[in-house]
Structure formats: structure tokens, C-alpha cells
Amino acid sequence: MKIPKALTIAGSDSGGGAGIQADLKTFAALGVYGTSALTAITSQNTLGVTGVHEVPTEIIAAQIEAVLTDIGADCVKTGMLASCAIVEVVSLQLKAFRVAALVVDPVMVAKSGDSLLHQDAVEALRTQLVPLAAVVTPNIPEAEVLTGVKIVSDDDMRRAAESIVGMGAGSVVVKGGHREGPATDLFYDGDRFQEFTAPRIDTKNTHGTGCTFASAVAAGLAKGLPILEAVDQAKKFVTAAISRSFPIGRGHGPLNHFYQFWE
Questions:
Q1: What is the pLDDT of residues 38-68, one digit of tens each?
Q2: Any catalytic annotation for residue 17?
Q3: Angle at CA 133, nearest 5°, toward 89 and 58?
Q4: Which among 34, 176, 210, 220 is annotated as catalytic?
Q5: N or C: which terminal CB in the chain sees fewer CB atoms within 10 Å?
Q6: Model-level pTM?
């Protein structure tokens, strides 16, 4: 029996709703064995981020090496990579281990609005990490920062998607949750566009949606799904986890990653 495996390289959320915690919950819920390499420790809850401690780059590299030389990974997902130095060391390790199935979630801002990425790391993301990705999963503000395209219309989303694939990514999903109307995400792989749409759910329990979506895509790829099937699975999983969420804390609550089991 071969167990699919996925590695998440991301920050820790002490509130349990996003980051490493959301990633590992998602992997487990979708039948994938999850491993992790922590890039930062955040003091965080549903109201905001009160502190960030970046893990030394040599420890980040050592965690990745420890996992990939023993357990291995059928897919790797990156999340919060706060600094240029962290982006660089992660990129070097991914190249050294010839990671082919890589999902890059270009985490920049927490749900509360707190910044999770230094400005000098954006260019490193563009030039070093994005070109290694099988798929990049930015929300609209992240896509705007990566591309310099102001996204208001459907055409703007397409231009931003084309720009990110032009940076070297295999494909991109520009998530439309920040726009009005139904939650429509746009996939592009250099050849075709495809939209994934779900009804917008009226809830404030959306902390960790980006991490969860990217991890669900990674879980699908780890199980051998084609990219479009992995994206479709991720969209459905996130929508269901939001619709079955519950109130935790006084701010933006988490998704219910285990809705299939707890009910």
C-alpha cells in the first residue's frame, strides 16, 4: 500500500486556522500523509498577528532535507516565506532535490490585514520560486503585487494569469474571492483558461482559505490527479469546509477541515 505524501513549507499559526496547521489538516482530510518545514512562528489568533519569529535559514534547509531524504514527498506546497533569504534557501533546496510537483501559495497578508512578507522578498518570489511551480495560487491582491496588474475586470484577471505563467510557472489559479458576486477562480496553463465557480457563502469564518486551497491542490497532485481535477477538488473542499465552519474566537474563524468526519 503506497501512501501519498505531501510536504508543506510554511509558517505556524498559533490559532490553528491557517499556515502549517491548516495545511496538515487539509492533507489528513484528503487522505495524504503530511510533513512540514516551519519557516516562521507567528503569535496569531482570529483577531490578528501579534508577533513573528523567522526560523533561521539553516534550520529551514535542514527540515526540508530531513523530510525529503527519508520520507520523500509526492508534492510540495509553500506558504509563508517571509524574507528574501527564506525564499532563496527554499528555492535552492527544491532545486537540489529536483522537486517537480510544487504548489506555490504566495502568502503576503494575513486575513486580519497583517503583513507576512517583507517587500524585498517579492522579487525573489517572482524570479526564484514561481518558475519552479507546477501551479501558483494567488488571491487578487497577491496577483496584483506579483504582476503589477490592477485587477478589476475579468480581462484583468486573464492578463495577470498570463503574466504569472510568463514568469515560468506551469500554471496559475487566480482566486476571485476578493471580487463581488460568486467566488470564481481562474485557471490558466499557457494554453487554456478555465473558471471554477462556487456560490459566495455569507460568513466571517474564512481564516485559512488560501492555505487550505493550495494544500488541497497539493493533496490532489500527491495522489496523482491531473492538475484540473486537483483544482476542482480543492475548490469543492474549501467551499464545503467554509459552509460547515463554526465560530471560534472573536474575529475571522477557521474552516471546518474535518466536516466529513465530525458530522
A1: 999 999 999 999 999 999 999 999 999 999 9
A2: no
A3: 15
A4: 210
A5: N
A6: 0.95
